[in-house]
Amino acid sequence: MSEDIKDKTIRIGTRGSKLALWQAEETAAKLQAAGFKTELVIISTKGDQVLDKSLDKIGSKGVFTEELEVSLREGQVEIAVHSAKDVQSSIPADLELVAFMEREQVNDVLVSFDPDFKLEPESNAIIGTSSTRRKALLKKYYPNISTAESRGNLQTRLRKLEEKQFDALMLAYAGVYRMGYDNLIVHTFPEGQFVPAAGQGSVAIECARNLEPELKKALKQALNHTNTHVCLLAERAFLRTMEGGCSIPSFALATLTEEGISITGGIVSLDGKTLLQETLEGPTVTAEEMGEELANIILNQGGDEILRSIKSERDE
Ligand SMILES: NCc1[nH]cc(CCC(=O)O)c1CC(=O)O
Predict the structure, then answer these.
(1) How many angstroms separate the CA atoms of 135 and 5, rounded?
(2) Do 3-102+202-224 and 108-188 share a fold?
(3) Strand, coil or helix: what is 237?
(4) Distance 225 CA to ligand 1 centre (A)
(5) Cβ-contact 81, 23 below 8 angstroms
(6) Residue numbers annotated as active site
(7) pLDDT of the residue at 51
(8) Dihedral of CA 27/32/34/40: which sign?
(9) Mutate which of 14, 15, 18, 19 to test ligand 1's pocket (most atoms within 8 Å of Cβ)?
(10) How many angstroms is it from 171 CA to the middle of ligand 1?
(11) 19 Cα nearest atom in ligand 1
(12) Scanning 24, 35, 45, 104, which has its CA 20 to 30 A from the CA of 84?
């Protein structure tokens, strides 16, 4: 790496939530280890500001990313750090995802302040979640459970849990673990049944497409995790082909196998009654094609119907 690039301070755009800051600091540490100076620039997004509406009502695109993308365009920051799950499936043409950082364990979990909380098949507990995917999968596998909205950052949600607005809170293990709340985990959902949202557990790094090529290359080298990257390419291709957005109960998880890559994905109707889920395996070089193919299989099996009915319900 040439000296002038190393001398440059990388300004890192991030949301201000504790999890976002953890992710940004992890990014900064990796960049510093590679010889860069770094600076965090905290930027608030619509998803942080509007807390009285569920995400699918705010609008599906870029709720947690838009303001960060503006700051990339305006040159206030060199990179923006996002939870990969929050990044829309197609990003604007003047921006690009330059790296995906090493993925954490992907499962959804339940956290509770009651260490004896048990999720029985007939459980009629109230579970806090605002995710359409989690709500629909809970309906499918735990029909007696009810759910309650729990928007806000992790700390806000834990306060609602403490106030007993629900019996347990359903979250991504990655965020719970990274915040140091894993001692509250009372249930881990198997990832084959509660398949995570595309990108869950990984951190995506975005930059302007016209950033100096040498700098881009150095950023990729310092931050990208190759195995995570190939899995995320498959999952994001699935998401793009489904044209889902974050408010659609679709899911996709790719993992590397001895021979190549395996991707499981699908969609579940909001009432939990129809679940479409398939798995494809193939060589890693076809990761994106496999994601697309899987989405087309799901759409043809009736996924298009599920999408249409969700969209028409929302537009009413
Ligand atoms: N939309 C919120 C969001 N975006 C990323 C995570 C968790 C951390 C991750 O998946 O990397 C969460 C919270 C949650 O789902 O519990």
Answers:
(1) 47
(2) yes
(3) helix
(4) 19
(5) yes
(6) 86
(7) 65
(8) positive
(9) 19
(10) 7
(11) 8
(12) 35
Instruction: Fill in the amino acid letter for 292.
Output: E
Which ligand 1 atom is the nearest neighbour of the CA of 84?
11
The full set of domain ranges for the chain reads 3-102+202-224, 108-188, 239-315
Domain 3-102+202-224 is classified in which CATH homologous superfamily?
Periplasmic binding protein-like II (3.40.190.10)
Q: What amino acid is encoded at 151 in this protein?
A: R
For residue 86 and ligand 1, the question of a CB distance below 6 A is answered with: yes
Distance (Å, whole) CA 268 – CA 140: 8
* Contact between 72 and 140 (Cβ < 8 Å): no
Q: What distance in angstroms lies between residue 109's CA and the mean position of ligand 1's atoms?
A: 11
CATH class, domain 108-188, is alpha beta
Which residues, including other chains, have CB under 8 Å from residue 119's CB and lie 6 or more apart? 110, 125, 142, 168, 186, 187
Ligand 1, residue 200: give the atom nearest the CA: 10
SS3 11: strand
Q: What is the CATH number of domain 239-315?
A: 3.30.160.40
pLDDT in tens, 34-67: 999 999 999 988 877 766 666 555 555 678 888 9
ipTM: 0.96
Q: Report d(CA 278, CA 160) in Å as an integer.
A: 36
HSE of 282 in the Cβ direction (CA atoms, 13 Å)? 17
Q: Per-residue pLDDT for 295 more than 60?
A: yes
- Taking the centre of ligand 1 as the mean of its atom positions, its distance from the CA of residue 200, in whole angstroms, is 7
Residue type at position 165: Q
- At 231-242, the pLDDT tens digits run 999 999 999 999
CB 48 within 8 A of CB 76: no
In sequence order, what are the residues at sequence separation of 6 or more whose Cβ sits closer than 8 angstroms to the Cβ of residue 13? 41, 43, 68, 71, 72, 76, 77, 79, 80, 81
Query: 83 CB less than 6 Å from ligand 1?
Result: yes
Percent of all residues in the chain with a pLDDT value above 90, rounded to a whole number: 83
